[in-house]
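Appendix B.2, paired examples.
Example (i):
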Amino acid sequence: MDFQIGSKIKKLRKARKLTLQDVARETGFSPALISQIENNNVSPPIATLSKIAKFFDVKMGHFFEEEEEERKYEIVRRLDRRVVSRVISKAGTGHGYTYEALSFRKRNKKMEPFVLTIAERAEDETLYNHDGEEFLLILKGTAEVILDEERFTLEAGDAVYFDSSLRHRLLASSDEEVQVLAVVTR
């Protein structure tokens, strides 16, 4: 299912009477990348989406919500997960991963749970940071997490919890697929 993340970003931008250059200047991303995201040509990685959400003062979940009434709980069946697969980096290159939103109807959440699937080891090791905290649990495969200048190898069953203001990156250790439960707070 398509979230139309880009059109939601465009709607927020236009409601505030901002240009692509205004958003780019404040978020640190290029106007071309913001345009690609708004036109749903690419989907931003979680760190990029988090910075955009912070700039517009909305929760990341805003981009995954359907226009429905507020719920006190939400059950998401495996086949109903929302998949975002065209994930592109700030530099415009592919990351080789997809993420599935595990909650997208519940509004005003304090956390965003995702299942990340990393299909290949990325050549780009650009580190990202954003507000909030993250929890990662390796479900399948072997991953490498970079936290500032330190590298850690995590295998299935291993977990890491960190302040997202640390420059960080999650990579597959090889071309073996890695599956990760990720929970991000704002």
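Example (ii):
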Amino acid sequence: MTEGKEIEGIFVPYAAGILCFSILHAHITASGFGIYYIPAAIVTAVSILSALRLLYDRNITIKYCAAVFLLLGIQSAITNNLTCSRENVISESLFRKAGTCTAYFSGITDKIPFPSAESGNLIKALTTGNKSGLSKSVIGSFRKSGASHILALSGLHLGIIYLLLLSILKIMGNSAFSGIARYISIISACGFYSVATGASPSIVRAFLFILLNETAKITHRQRRPLYILFAALSIQLSINTDIIKSPGFQMSYMAMLGIFIIFPVLQKWYGYENSCRNGITGFIGRHNPLKKIWDTAALSISCQVFTAPVAWYYFGTFPKYFLITNLIALPMTTIIMILSIIIICLYQIGICPLFLIDIDDTIINGLLRSLDIISSM
């Protein structure tokens, strides 16, 4: 089997098995021993015996692998359903610590002298997920303009922090020791942020993707984004199979699928490589602002194509001006988050210049004003 078939033959059927059980379970009554527990025992036995064969038979076909992991997915969902009523002490402890961390960062942000009251509240929402301080008008502007995903703490926010860490830690060099130190620093920081913000499904997805990607990098393994996504999907479902019912979980993975499948195709439509072959450089170069706009639009379209059906199914709405919103909001949100994190760190150690706070406040007001205009269209 090729590498791609091996990965797809394991991860995709496993997730499909969990999804099948989730759909069927809505029509099954668990109170009857014969209706639920006997089939569950049969599926568990067959899946375990089939999986054991994988260890001894080298002539396994891709179809057999797919069938085995489909059964293993169903079995995992069954096991999770039978034990879901137990109290998860570890999870509760993590969420208590997450609340403490969120309150700590919120307290720091409250002390920063932003000229506008909404600035500090928006920064808390973007960095910690605490939206309690935002006014109804601001929340309404985000919702009506199609920018609600920016307020909902997700992989976007952890991705921005990840890119910021990569940029900062470049100063460590390229030695073997530096690579290990950078790996530990990135995973620790991203893991801490995931727990501190409540470990939402999309945040966990992003953390698992970062963990697998950085692990492949440090071990000199081939990194293919789509396969790493499949691996993250299976790990997350193994931890909690019920999470497959979460709209946030579904939209997070669908958005990433759109990015990995459609985005590269849309990028090529711009014609950057052909322009370079013809000797047209400078404005048509890699840092061409029109190319950046095209990439942002392509990214937004790629996400929306895959997430729109899920959003319509759960919420019955579709943002009409999502393209305009994302072209404006995504770059500004990235700048706001990076600048805000720098400000929080500098302010905490007492060396934050006021002009940085003013710049951040100006950009935030520009974002809010833009979304207000779009929401009124």
